[in-house]
Design a protein that fits this description.
With 488 residues, the protein is α+β, with helices and mostly antiparallel strands. It is built from 18 helices and 10 strands. The strands form 4 sheets. Strands 1-2-6-3 form a 4-stranded mixed sheet. A two-stranded antiparallel sheet has the order 4-5. A two-stranded antiparallel sheet has the order 7-10. Strand 4 and strand 5 form a beta hairpin. Helix 9 crosses helix 11. It binds protoporphyrin IX containing FE (HEM). The site of protoporphyrin IX containing FE has 26 residues, from helix 13, helix 14 and helix 18.
Length: 488
């Protein structure tokens, strides 16, 4: 009838036009002054936010002081904000402490959206692309073979592999950044890691986040904050020294992207927007790559082995597939389409344990809308990737590890998978990470099968510990060599 058509049109119009009279966002009751602060202090925040979605829907709001946060919990609403309306939601929250750890907002990950940020991201993106095409494969292969040697040297004893995975992932990045790799006992490497880990941990602590919400506290002495400042200064000193060493070398490492970045600065033509990129941008890009590219990849490898201990038959299937397809040789990244069982394993671990479970908060840079709700400028947007990957409307049996869902006829669709986010803020290292996950996993499962230690009845706890990166609780494992005839 005419009335229904009119109602339909009105509804469509309502969806199209963001306006302040659109329905108000659902969310838990908010208390005077503290708002929903208590909701944000749960020990496994991604699980808690996902549980709230069962009650309040795929999009809801939380309040914290003067800030309104909107949590997005399905891949559809996340894509609407991050991809379809990327130019409305490409900002980062303005934060006093983020400014300090990012050298005045000069990192790509924490810098707000503006012309300088765009030029910076473009410069690093093209340097990374070039390196992916030229040398990344051999850099990762080298680290995968080194990891193989480390595991062989354990000779079947029960070990915690997390540090070895961190060293492998970190060496890929330090080779890319300065053409340098380290061994586990190197004091230089330990200094760098302890400093970066400390910064991430301190920055996430309540003592520091309180400085963002309550500016008056900045006037009081705060020993945690002083420690953060010291660690930031130490980090900058270490990176500066490496970059200076790199610049003073006669024969520079070709695989290092620092060369491309420095060249990029020299032939920069992007002054039309008043932007001039300098050494500080190269310096902070190095910080971005080290922080973004080490713990994420390492945590993912650690999760994969943990899940495989629970489902040993999956290891066998991946191994058999490699034997049939590769006939004994080591895989290349270009083999991935011929190895669907391995690819399904990688996707399932990315789905169940997206290692950056809440991505990085975004900020609305203008008034906009998501799912028909009005979103005012400056609203903080939290893409709950963990929630999207457990959405029962998209995934059957979402909490269970089932790599077979990604095989033909299994019902799982990679379209609903968004472990790297999307749009303007898509993970800058996505191509690097994908090649690493594939090659490291393939090399490990070709030469070893992983079993739980004999004297330990318990398998790894799969719930995880969530901070910025979602990690598995420490566990030990035995890496047994596959039959030597397939191990040249
Ligand atoms: C940002 C995931 C590995 C560098 C992000 C974001 C996610 C993510 C979800 C936030 C996107 C957003 O703000 O919406 C992952 C996963 C990885 C991984 C799951 C591995 C399994 C890497 C690697 C590098 C890297 C290897 C470096 C080589 C970055 C940087 C950003 C970022 C620089 C900030 C991008 C921006 O703000 O524009 N990553 N990442 N990541 N990642 Fe990754």
């Amino acid at each position: 009838s005419k009335l229904t058509v009119k109602a339909g049109l009105l509804q469509n119009l309502h969806q199209l036009l963001p306006h302040s009279s659109s329905p108000s966002l659902p969310g838990p009751p908010s208390f005077f002054l503290i708002g929903n602060m208590m909701e944000l202090t749960h020990d496994h925040l991604p699980i808690h936010l996902t549980n709230l979605a069962q009650r309040y829907g795929n999009i809801y709001r939380l309040k914290c002081g003067n800030t309104t946060m909107v949590v997005l919990n399905s891949s559809e609403v996340i894509r609407e904000a991050l991809v379809k309306k990327w130019s409305d939601f490409a900002g980062r929250p303005v934060s006093y402490t983020a400014d300090i750890v990012s050298g005045g907002g000069h990192t790509i990950s924490l810098g707000d959206y503006n012309e300088e940020w765009r030029a910076h991201r473009r410069l690093v993106h093209s340097a990374l692309q070039r390196c992916c095409q030229q040398s990344l494969h051999s850099v990762i292969e080298r680290q995968a073979l080194h990891l193989r040697k480390v595991l062989m040297d354990y000779q079947g004893s029960a070990v915690d592999l997390s540090e070895d995975f961190t060293v492998a992932a970190s060496n890929v990045i330090t080779t890319l950044a300065f053409g340098k790799e380290y061994n586990k006992t190197s004091s230089e490497l330990q200094q760098l890691h302890s400093c970066l880990n400390e910064i991430v941990a301190l920055w996430g602590s309540t003592w520091i986040s309180a400085l963002d919400s309550f500016p008056l506290l900045r006037k009081l002495p705060n020993p945690v904050f002083s420690r953060l400042l010291r660690e930031v200064a130490k980090r900058d000193e270490i990176i500066k020294e490496h970059l200076n060493n790199y610049k003073s070398q006669d024969k520079r490492h070709e695989e290092a992207i620092t060369g491309s970045l420095l060249q990029g600065l020299e032939k920069q033509h992007n002054t039309e927007h008043g932007v001039r990129l300098t050494d500080i941008h190269v310096h902070m890009a190095t910080v971005d790559l080290l922080i973004g590219g080490t713990e994420t990849t390492a945590a993912w490898l650690n999760w994969t082995v943990a899940f495989l201990l629970h489902r040993p038959e999956v290891q066998t299937k991946v191994y058999e597939e490699m034997c049939t397809v590769l006939e004994g040789r080591y895989p290349k990244y270009s083999d991935r389409h011929r190895l669907p069982v391995l690819s399904a394993l990688i996707n399932e671990v990315l789905r169940l344990r997206p290692v950056a479970p809440l991505a990085v908060p975004h900020r609305a840079i203008r008034d906009s809308s998501i799912a028909g709700y009005f979103i005012p400028k400056n609203t903080v947007i939290i893409p709950n990737l963990f929630g999207a990957h457990h959405d029962p409307a998209v995934w059957s049996d979402p909490y269970n590890f089932k790599p077979e869902r990604f095989l033909a006829g299994g019902g799982g669709s990679t379209r609903a998978l968004i472990p790297f986010g999307g749009g303007a803020r898509l993970c800058l290292g996505e191509s690097v990470a994908k090649m690493e996950l594939f090659l490291f996993t393939a090399y490990l499962l070709r030469d070893f099968h992983f079993i739980p230690p004999e004297n330990k009845a318990s398998l790894p706890d799969l719930r995880g510990v969530a901070s910025v990166v979602l990690k598995v609780k420490p566990y030990t494992v035995v890496a047994c060599r596959r039959p030597p005839e397939t191990n040249p």
